[in-house]
């Protein structure tokens, strides 16, 4: 373990006043869109959605630390806030929740944001593969693109995560494992399935550095992620960031948290609202006044309206497309499935 480098978030450059304001604007845009998406589902515009209420700081703070000219994001189904922060087209992103297309209609290569992943822990393996490709590309240390993979405390119990971390550490792959520990895997609380209570603590066993950070503090998340990215970019291999937060809403629009936790527990365990916290900081430091907060909300409302109209206008995609992007060269079995599907659904 002697060669494990510590991560020092305080060594990262301070964020400017404009950066701090931008982090707040992004969190407001994400919160407003997230809350709206639940209403869209209730109104029948989209069939389902996985809200991220309470996780805005974890997502915006980490996304804001990325260098999108060379890094690559591997999300789960709950990273709308990261997508918004790194500039993914939000209508194309939301198409997955409209069930127009699996994984979002955006171009993953151009957006540097992998398709939305519903397989728990799936994105973790993909990220390590991509990161190993960076090593093989011959890009010099210091200039490496870094893969960042998002996953939850629940996913951390999957065997895939062990394999991914071990492989990444052995091969010194430039990857940041970003865990949002939001307290729940659907109905199962963290203490029922993360032995020891911390995913970051496992890093020592893989000889990689880690940081556990207050996931409700957007600046702390940003600095921790920036430190982990700098470590990986310099050719030192992977790092873990575990953002401790709380899933304030349901697991998805088809979940009823009342079946496994009480309102009193939600109030007691929910922690600090990330937006309220940043608002207080901006006010306390004299960086923003009421006009700024009003403008941020109005911009978020206008943006949501644009996205809602775009999602409403999305048509369905040709069903044959579900076979088109499985493999570069379709297998015999896949061709047979596609044929059978066409015969049944299109009667050809
Ligand atoms: C391989 C696999 N197993 C089970 C599921 C069903 N499932 C969907 S989300 C989820 C819980 C994941 O919890 P966590 O990783 O903590 O992420 P969170 O949903 O809290 O963001 C489960 C078990 C799945 N989608 N994929």
Automatic annotation (TrEMBL):
Cofactor dependence: thiamine diphosphate
Domain of life: Bacteria
Dehydrogenase E1 component domain boundaries: 24-295
Top EC class of this enzyme: oxidoreductase
InterPro entries linked: Alpha-ketoacid_DH_E1_comp (IPR050771), DH_E1 (IPR001017), THDP-binding (IPR029061)
Residue spans crossing the bilayer: none
Enzyme Commission code: 1.2.4.4
UniProt keyword annotations, A-Z: Oxidoreductase, Thiamine pyrophosphate
Keyword Oxidoreductase: yes
Catalytic reaction equation(s): N(6)-[(R)-lipoyl]-L-lysyl-[protein] + 3-methyl-2-oxobutanoate + H(+) = N(6)-[(R)-S(8)-2-methylpropanoyldihydrolipoyl]-L-lysyl-[protein] + CO2
Similarity-based family: Belongs to the BCKDHA family.
Known role: The branched-chain alpha-keto dehydrogenase complex catalyzes the overall conversion of alpha-keto acids to acyl-CoA and CO(2). It contains multiple copies of three enzymatic components: branched-chain alpha-keto acid decarboxylase (E1), lipoamide acyltransferase (E2) and lipoamide dehydrogenase (E3).
Protein's recorded name: 2-oxoisovalerate dehydrogenase subunit alpha
Native organism: Arthrobacter sulfonylureivorans
